[in-house]
Amino acid sequence: MEALSPQTLFTGQQIIWLPECASTNAEAQALILKNSATDGCTVITDKQTAGRGQRGNGWEAAPGENLTLSVIWKPSFLAATEQFQLSQAVALGVLDWVQTLLGPDAALRVKWPNDIFYGSQKLGGILIENTLSGAKIQYTIVGIGLNVNQREFGAPTATSLAGLTGRSYALPPQAARLLECLERRYLQLRAGRVSQLRYDYLQALYRYQERHPYEVGGQQVTGQIVGIDETGRLAVEINGQLRSFGLQEIRYIH
Ligand SMILES: O=C(O)CCCC[C@@H]1SC[C@@H]2NC(=O)N[C@@H]21
Q1: Domain co-membership, 220 together with 189
Q2: Which atom of ligand 1 lies closest to the CA of 145?
């Protein structure tokens, strides 16, 4: 795979900052449909009225307090079967950025497939939506919601950077830093450094090699995450048996 020089970073990438929209992922999708999406083009908003989350859930965030954005990439070098490599790169890019604010020893983890956790509290979520062209990925929309300055949450399982540090953060410079961190990991992926990304992802994986309760097929089981396969399925050892799960097939029990 080609090696990329730093000049290939998306410097000067198009950033569209909207006061309000339904969903930045939906806005990104509209740009793609109009053929106006450049590689690295980013939509950011202060307020989403119909934010989308994983598993068909919604995504809510206090207006003007958090980072809510979608980056469009054109990863035509990836086969459709390699979509999980994007998940890994994106989660690590977000983690790299959070680490610049909380320090390298902060208890940051990626909860499979790509929730950003501090301890057992969620700091942010990622929703990646891909458009395929035959067996290749044509466009990817990387939707990221990060709790930055919001202090109040409906559940104790969520937190924010401000909640953790007691500081508040100006959003535009943080958005720029986050995009840089994402680009760095994306370039790593483009340069074919897949094993490094995989290694870093497993190092950061929440509850990796620990025994915890999960819900599988409506039953509570105790299992130990032992790995992730090439397609991103979670490998869990349950009662001495190795089993593999997709996103809809297993739930974490807190
Ligand atoms: O944890 C999740 O369920 C994923 C949440 C992803 C939310 C982000 S906010 C920006 C982008 N636009 C959306 O509609 N969703 C993603």
Answers
A1: no
A2: 9
Q: Are residue 144 and residue 52 in the same domain, yes or no?
A: yes
Find the CATH number of the domain harbouring 150. Answer: 3.30.930.10
84/156 same-domain check:
yes
Q: In what order do the strands lie in the sheet with 211-216?
A: 241-245, 234-238, 219-228, 211-216, 251-252
Q: Which ipTM was obtained for this model?
A: 0.99
Give the single-character DSSP code of 224. Answer: E
- Atom number in ligand 1 closest to CA 57: 3
User: What is the 241 CA–ligand 1 centroid distance (Å)?
Assistant: 34
pLDDT above 90 (res 2)? no
Which position has the token pair 């003007």? 64
In a domain, 7, yes or no: no
What CATH number is given to the structural domain containing 239? 2.30.30
Cβ atoms of 96 and 116 within 8 Å: the answer is no
pTM value is 0.94
Using a 6 Å cutoff on CB, does residue 183 contact ligand 1?
no
> Does residue 161 sit within a domain?
yes
198 and 247 co-located in one domain = no
Task: Choose among 53, 148, 51, 158: nearest CA to 102.
Answer: 148
Q: Which helix (H) or strand (E) holds 121?
A: strand 121-133
- Same domain? For 125 and 238 the reply is no
pLDDT at 11: 56
Number of domains in the chain: 2
pLDDT confidence band for 83 (50 / 70 / 90): very high
Closest atom of ligand 1 to CA, residue 69: 10
Has residue 8 got a pLDDT over 80? no
